[in-house]
Write a structure and sequence with these properties.
globular, about 0% helix, mainly beta, eight-stranded mixed beta sheet, nine-stranded mixed beta sheet
Length: about 260
């Protein structure tokens, strides 16, 4: 596995040192800079503003994708554990609100041959855990809790956690456990988030567990969501105009409004 520690001043990773015995590297290109990790562990990092574990921000100089720079994280059987930031304790992704294509995306255990194939041996067998987002905390550097999200997506960013459509149940699943914050997942603006073949359990939030605003879209497939602590008066899902697609999933939060 790969163990990564970083020093952060304001936003994202400023200085990185890693000890690696597997693949876990930065890949820089003119068109699409990306972070490729399989398997790897990003743990115990702190950011004072955004993106405790991973910070992604795309760039577009024109309305029709002229001179664009995509920011992309591709992860297979990876682990984000014990990271913290006031907003986006584990991941913060900013798509820069381009109306044609998103310029920041997060793909976790996703078959995406048009982007990159998973390295051999890093696709987990079915019915096994395959990476996790664990014990991340939305808080200030001095440890004061905030109402920020553990996973924060804004301005056209795209996130797919755990699989791809009907193939998601054919591989090991992602676990999202032990995280604390205002929300577990926050999706602001016109974004899309898919959560597939994932266990969401034992997280603690002071606001809705998953909040989706404006025209953003949420897809939940082969999901088990149970045993989370959600502050009184808050629903499990807070949806905008984009709606939700729910398939073959269990949402079990007795006494909590869905």
């Amino acid at each position: 596995s790969t163990s990564t520690d970083s020093k952060v001043t304001k936003i994202g990773i400023r200085k990185m040192s890693a000890k690696a015995s597997a693949i876990g590297k930065w890949v820089n290109a003119t068109i699409a800079p990306r972070l490729l990790m399989a398997p790897a562990s990003i743990r115990n990092n702190k950011a004072s503003i955004q993106g405790g574990g991973i910070y992604l921000r795309g760039f577009s100089a024109g309305s029709l994708n002229e001179d664009t720079k995509d920011a992309r994280a591709l992860l297979w059987n990876a682990e984000l554990r014990g990271n913290s930031a006031p907003s986006g304790a584990a991941i913060y992704a900013d798509g820069q609100d381009n109306f044609v294509f998103p310029h920041a995306d997060v793909l976790f255990n996703v078959d995406a041959p048009f982007l990159a194939e998973p390295p051999p041996g890093f696709v987990c067998p079915a019915n096994q855990f395959c990476g996790g987002i664990l014990d991340n905390v939305a808080q200030t550097p001095d440890g004061t809790p905030t109402d920020g999200a553990v996973l924060h997506m804004v301005r056209g960013a795209f996130m797919n956690l755990g699989g791809h459509d009907d193939n998601s149940s054919l591989r090991g699943g992602l676990t999202i456990e032990g995280n604390r914050g205002g929300r577990l997942i926050f999706v602001g603006g016109d974004n899309e988030v898919r959560v597939e073949n994932v266990l969401i359990s034992d997280n603690q939030v002071s606001r809705p567990l998953i909040a989706v605003e404006a025209d953003s879209r949420l897809g939940l497939t082969d999901l088990t969501l149970a045993g989370n602590v959600i502050a009184s008066g808050n629903p499990v899902l807070q949806l905008g105009n984009g709606g939700v697609e729910l398939r073959r999933s269990i949402l079990w939060q007795p006494g909590q409004t869905l």
